[in-house]
């Protein structure tokens, strides 16, 4: 069986080093916001080439706290509109809602699956104050164009980089949110997330918001939350961060083979603009009869996953949007299928997947 993603195999190489870290965290007697989190924040800020990093509990909170931070700073007001792709994982949209802001959905390009920048301007109103760009499947959204639009309209730009750790964009955004959920390109052994930014005031505010709105113990400045990156998760991430680039290169090498060797008219391969970084969090193909292809692959011992079967605007949780029409988003959700891809997948396994797909 070729697993969709073998997390055990991905994390095994770090076992011995992590046991040492575990001992040292255990014997330090300090388990929340200690030296591992501090070290990770320094390492990850440097890696992302932003000045500040704040470790938080998960990717959704990283996004939510960016918006709540800007509300606290008076740069956003409750009820302001935020442009967000209709074709995304629902967490992008939930973050906007949880900060009492209003998501305005924009269709993607069918080729890239990412937001179509050409459609953004027509959605901008006097209430629009920010754009949340999502780098879906690990492919950077068209950030240069997005920043031009933002500049013309005086908008804050936030990136949802949950799926694109390592695919550093043009570094012009106000803040970038990361997730270290175990399946992500930089995955922890549980939940974790981070915000990176060059905005000192924002970093300071999020640092407080993640900790009950408190900077000085028992003195609360904001209505905050409890969402701190865990010391043990940070310790594990400190061990894994140095291999993230090499892991992403392995993903890209597999993607290159899939792109050049899968030859089947029934399968639409993903678009990869080599000038735009893509770290292939997922390798997503499209096909008209997805059920049939997924069953065929399953019968040939190849595990696949659908990212995602139901678009956000069709979810029960967002019932008031269920009648809205986003045909490109809906088409993508009906046709996508994610093939196995990971830094631990062998080239023999890749060859097997290709040969089975070419016989379909
Ligand atoms: C995973 C993910 C998130 C949320 O991250 P969590 O750590 O699971 O909260 C947000 N946005 C996108 C695009 C994601 O893929």
Automatic annotation (TrEMBL):
Record carries keyword Membrane: no
Pfam families: DegT_DnrJ_EryC1 (PF01041)
Keyword list, A-Z: Pyridoxal phosphate
Source organism superkingdom: Bacteria
SUPFAM superfamilies on file: PLP-dependent transferases
Membrane-spanning residues: none
Keyword Transport: no
Recorded family membership: Belongs to the DegT/DnrJ/EryC1 family.
Official protein name in the record: dTDP-4-amino-4,6-dideoxygalactose transaminase
Organism in which the protein naturally occurs: Flavobacterium granuli
